[in-house]
Amino acid sequence: MAFLTGATHGIFQPLLTDEAMSPRSTYPESFANAGAQELTQTFMQYVINFLWADSPNGPNVPRWEPWTAADAGPANLILDADKDKALIHQSYERVVYDDILQQIEADQSVTPEVKSEIVHKVLNGRWWSSGLDQHYGNPDLFAQD
Asked: Which SUPFAM superfamilies does the record associate with it (predicted)?
């Protein structure tokens, strides 16, 4: 699903409930398999553990190490699934903003025109996009008069 639609805002919402809300209502087949169901159960267990014990960890979920600013410490918990099972692992890889900009520059999966449209009209002006906006010359949408 992500390959076809990209990252979906609020993708975690269907993992909190069995109710048909977007994107579950838009792509019901993507959530009707063993992998998505296991991912939903694991995600819900992380939330329950955190609410009850102030920690997402517990006996029935992969360990979620706390993030650290150290170069070699835990970075992200990757929550994914294929059709058959949940794919959850701790990442220790560090990504820096300049690396992301270089990946955008090198990406040839879309035409230059489409990339320009995405960079200048979709990714611009976000709370996290000041580096991207500066790199591509996008206007500051939050400029104070």
From this structure: alpha/beta-Hydrolases
